[in-house]
Structure formats: structure tokens, C-alpha cells
Amino acid sequence: MDILKSKQMPIKKFAKNDLKREMISDKLLDILICPVCNTYGLHKIGEDIYCENNNCSKSKDAFYMVNSKPVLINFKKSLVDEEGFRANAGKSIIKRRGSGIIQNLKLLFHGKSKKTINNFSDLKSRMLNITDPKILIVGGGEIGSGLDDFYLNLKDNIIAFDIYESESVSFVADAHFIPIIDNYFDLVIIQAVIEHVLDPCQVVSEISRVLNYNGIVYAETPFMQQVHEGPFDFTRYTESGHRFLFKNFKVVSSGYTSGVGISLIWSLDFFFSGLFRSRYAGKIARLVFFWLRFFDNIIPDKFNIDGACGVYFMGEKSESNLNGSEIIKYYQGNQEIN
Prior knowledge:
Elements: H1 26-29, E1 42-45, E2 48-51, E3 65-66, E4 69-72, H2 82-87, H3 100-110, H4 114-128, E5 135-138, H5 148-154, E6 158-162, E7 171-173, E8 185-191, H6 200-210, E9 211-222, H7 239-245, E10 249-258, H8 260-275, H9 279-288, H10 301-306, E11 310-317, H11 324-330
Parallel strand pairs: 4-7, 5-6, 5-8, 6-7, 8-9
Antiparallel strand pairs: 1-2, 3-4, 9-11, 10-11
Helix pairs in contact: 4-5, 7-11, 8-9
């Protein structure tokens, strides 16, 4: 079915209050590992959590907790500053998305990617066909775009973490080292996160490690977007480059989430912001030119891929390894070579 022509059923919005979690459960504790020594598990003494390795510093020094959630970060190897993290009580130092009227206006003018919604519908169907699926969301401090229906159906199967504390996460961790045992999850989702990590290859390696054999990864990452989250924005990927980042995965589907119309809106935002020295001018430009996004629906996929605002990859963990010549042949854009 052509998703651009099909009628979308209204999706009930997922309430963050539905995700409130108490003290870390024994079930979750059983699959966590220490981010300092990397191999040993964790245990509780009273309300405190320690590493089981007697030679590890965390066997005597309990992990820092925020709202009863352990902070499983090796601060000596992470870009997260421990002193600043504690001073801010583990909260994000980046201003996050608003709610209420402002957020509803953003959805009205910016919409949601139909490709993203379709992809999450596919993933939901796959997970509902598995008995007690195990799902990890990397960078799950906020409910990602298009994930409301997914959460509504699978919230009890989801473990989420982020680099900061929020109602949505079970623990706090750095994606460069995911403190979970090997070969555990059926699905890992990493949406709008890869651009914010220093070493994407290391993060993808960690995702592969915690996925079971034939487990699925789903990633969305920007291509033609300007800097967001300031000093914590590092990387962009073409659709081919994004596919090659996941070279150890068998492709299920891959492409763009939003095309050249959305890319143009981003450019106009930053153009007017710079011209008038005001971020508000850019936001006004987004509202004025919101209609450009509809051109993504009529521009052919090959052209959208070459100028995509964002790209996605869905793949199965495998023993294959895509090489350089194969990624050249894989290219799905509009530019022909002799």
C-alpha cells in the first residue's frame, strides 16, 4: 500500500505519566553490567547499587542515583562532566521540546514523517509476533517522533536510557558503552541520536553486541540539517553513508524519512536567523514556509534521497560485512556515474 495515499488512522498520544518507574527492578538489575570494569554484573545493598567485581572501584563506591535510577556512566571515558552532571541533578542541559500549545503548533505546521510512522508500524507488527519481545531505546529521554502508538502497544517491553534523567528512562548511560549483557534485545531503536555521539561506529558496535542474533536495529539520523543542540552535534550521514555505518547488518529497508522540502525549511530557518540575528526570525520562517514540506510527497524518491533532511536504516544483525565496492553499487540516489 502506498502510504502517501493511504488514510492514516488517528493515533492516540502516549502520556509520559504512563512511563513513571519506581526503584530499579530485580529483572532489570539482572541484565545490567558495570560501565567501569565492563564485564561484571551489579547488585543492590539496601537502596544502593554496586559492581560485583571486588577489584572494581564501584564495588565499594555506589553508583550515583537520580530519582531512584542508577547513573551507569564511566565519567573518566565519557564526554559527560561528572561535576556538572551532579550539580544539575542529572537533568538535561539542553532545552527539550515544549508541550501543550507550542508543541501542538509544531505538529500542525511541521507534521510527522509518514515514512517514520510506517516504519514504526512495521516494527510494532514484528514485535507483537514475538512472545515477550525485548526492546531497547537508545536516547529515550523523550518519546521520539512517531513512537506514540508503538509505546501504547509495547510499553511493558521497552527499556529506555539516555545521557540525562527523565520520566521515560530506566537508567542513565552513555551510548558508547551500553551497560547491558550481550545478545539480549530483539529490537534496538536509536532515533536522532547518532549525530550527537563522538564515535558512531562504537555506538553501532554496542548496539550489535546487545542485540540477539537476527535482532533488529532501527536508526534515524539527519543528513541535510543545520546544527542543533549546539556543542553536542557532531555528525551527518548521506543515505549510503548511513547504510555503511550499519555494514554488519542485513538490510531490511533503508531510505529517507524527510526529503528536500523539509531540508529547505531547515535552511530558511537558519538563513533568516542569521540575517536578522534572531532565532525567533528563523522560527517564524518555519511557520511561513511550512507548506514546502508537502513537496516531499511529489518529488521522486531518488531526488529526495540526494537532498534528504533525514535518513533511516532498518536491519537485522548478521555475520555479513558490507564492503566498499558493495556500498558503491548500493547507492539509491539520482546521480548516475559512467
